[in-house]
Amino acid sequence: GAVVSQHPSRVICKSGTSVKIECRSLDFQATTMFWYRQFPKQSLMLMATSNEGSKATYEQGVEKDKFLINHASLTLSTLTVTSAHPEDSSFYICSARGGGAGDTQYFGPGTRLTVL
Amino acid sequence: TQLLEQSPQFLSIQEGENLTVYCNSSSVFSSLQWYRQEPGEGPVLLVTVVTGGEVKKLKRLTFQFGDARKDSSLHITAAQPGDTGLYLCAGDPNTGRRALTFGSGTRLQVQP
């Protein structure tokens, strides 16, 4: 199956700093990428949808100025958590989908963010 | 908003037992996917069902898509400790958003 990578896999930062997470589709062109957040023992919560070359669409309640998303190419999307606080600590997962309506959505391995 | 309800939320069974996980919605989905997720990792796709009434088998796992494409089930036969994990169903609403709707998840623990 298709491979989606995320970097870094784990990051620890101080409160107030910004953290960038990369999501790459390694063997297919992802016209759409999604960013999810997952709290312990819970399901995935969609944060935003990004299409290559256009602005991301954020879900209700997600601050677009805090979670900056850039989808600069068909294989790369980045999520920047700006001025991170301890409550932003979570497991962030990206997924990527190709161009067809029936294309499968493949998930990255996730990034564990801990804000001290 | 299209919602997917998954049940049970948590299941602890002994090795060798059978189990069924349900995924229900009042909405129609063009397809439905089942994922398995282990702690600290991303979800891994198990199967995609597309046709109403479709049944797919993956070794000891049997997946079924409801005739009306509103619900699905996952049946595991003779569960093993290696089946332990979080099972997630996700429906494709086939709208312009292209985002999957996820169920709340079923945490399965198989005791040896």
Report what the structure shows:
The complex is a heterodimer of chains A (116) and B (112). With 116 residues, chain A is an all-beta fold. In chain A, strands 2, 4, 5, 6, 9, 10 and 11 form a 7-stranded mixed sheet that branches. The mean pLDDT of chain A is 90. In chain B, the strands form 2 sheets. In chain B, strands 2, 4, 5, 9, 10 and 11 form a 6-stranded mixed sheet that branches. In chain B, strands 1-3-8-7-6 form a 5-stranded antiparallel sheet, with no helix packed on it. Chain B is an all-beta fold. Chain B is built from no helices and 11 strands. The interface between A and B is medium-sized, with 26 and 26 residues.
| Spans of at least 5 consecutive residues with low confidence of chain B | none
Discrete helix count of chain B = 0
Q: How many helices of chain A does DSSP assign?
A: 0
Radius of gyration of chain A: 13 Å
Question: What helical percentage do the residues of chain A reach?
Answer: under 10%
What is the overall silhouette of chain A?
Answer: globular
Helical content of chain B stands at under 10%
In terms of structural class, how would the helical and strand content of chain B be classed? mainly beta
Characterize the largest beta sheet of chain A: strand count, sense, and whether it forms a barrel: 7 strands, mixed
Number of strands of chain B: 11
The largest sheet of chain B is: 6 strands, mixed
